[in-house]
Amino acid sequence: CTQNGRPQIFKFTNCFDASANNKDVYDGMIRSAVLASLQGYNTTVLAYGQTASGKSHSIFGSSSEEGILSLSIDNLITMNAN
């Protein structure tokens, strides 16, 4: 990609390969946002991508794998119990 004839540089906090599961993504990216929200920070998690690329699966999971939403709720409940 170029802008005004110059290559654009993009930075990524984390990247996951095809072997990553929802728990890997949660642990690598989402858990810190959940913890920050408990400290009073505003946080947002955005799933963006092409149709049928796995956004809903990542958020809601499946019968065989929890999604990041339920992982977040589980984490909040566990932290509240402590």
Give the SSE layout.
Blueprint: E1 2-3, E2 6-7, H1 22-38, H2 55-60, E3 61-62, E4 65-66, H3 68-81
Helix pairs in contact: 1-3
Pfam family, one: Kinesin
InterPro entries: Kinesin-like_fam (IPR027640), Kinesin_motor_dom (IPR001752), Kinesin_motor_dom_sf (IPR036961), P-loop_NTPase (IPR027417)
Keywords: ATP-binding, Coiled coil, Cytoplasm, Cytoskeleton, Motor protein, Nucleotide-binding
- The helix count comes to 3
Neighbour order of strands in the largest sheet: 1-2
Mean model confidence by pLDDT:
92
SSE topology string: EEHHEEH
How would you describe the oligomerization state of the chains in this entry? Answer: single chain
Tell the overall outline. globular
The largest pleated sheet is described as:
2 strands, antiparallel
**Would you count the extended β strands for me?**
4
How far is it from the N-terminal to the C-terminal residue, by CA?
48 Å
Domain count, please report it.
Answer: 1
Label the structural class.
mainly alpha
Percent helix among the residues? 40-55%
Radius of gyration: 16 Å
How much of the residues is beta strand, in percent?
5-15%
GO molecular function, one term: microtubule binding
Family: Belongs to the TRAFAC class myosin-kinesin ATPase superfamily. Kinesin family.
Organism: Adineta steineri
Keywords: ATP-binding, Coiled coil, Cytoplasm, Cytoskeleton, Motor protein, Nucleotide-binding
